[in-house]
Amino acid sequence: MKFLSTVVLAALASAVSAYTVLDATSFDSGIQTGKWLVKYYSPTCPWSKRFAPVWEQVYTDLQDQLAPNDVFFAEVDCKAFRAICDNADIDGYPTVVYYNEGVNKGEVPGGQDYEVLANFAQGL
């Protein structure tokens, strides 16, 4: 029972925080509603590792402001889910792509910079 309570609490925390880890079963349905900034990365890529704290800081700083406007953050591990990254034409890591109601609107220009990414997200 304790395990089930932990799972339920983790799921509720994820739903409240508006941050999602997407995989092969959740990607298509996950981004269908709202505006999504999706980070494509490889856990072994040094550039992805350097970008992780920037991404986390933008999310942390803006989550309360953006969630009521249906702006969500997500990530895809391209090492684990190569097909998703291939379908999105990801050719380098990390890459941040903007989706609106499930439609790929393209890479966020300069999306690895805190100020650029934060300003882009606030403009959605």
UniProtKB/TrEMBL annotation:
Q: What is this protein called?
A: Uncharacterized protein
**To which species is this protein native?**
Kickxella alabastrina
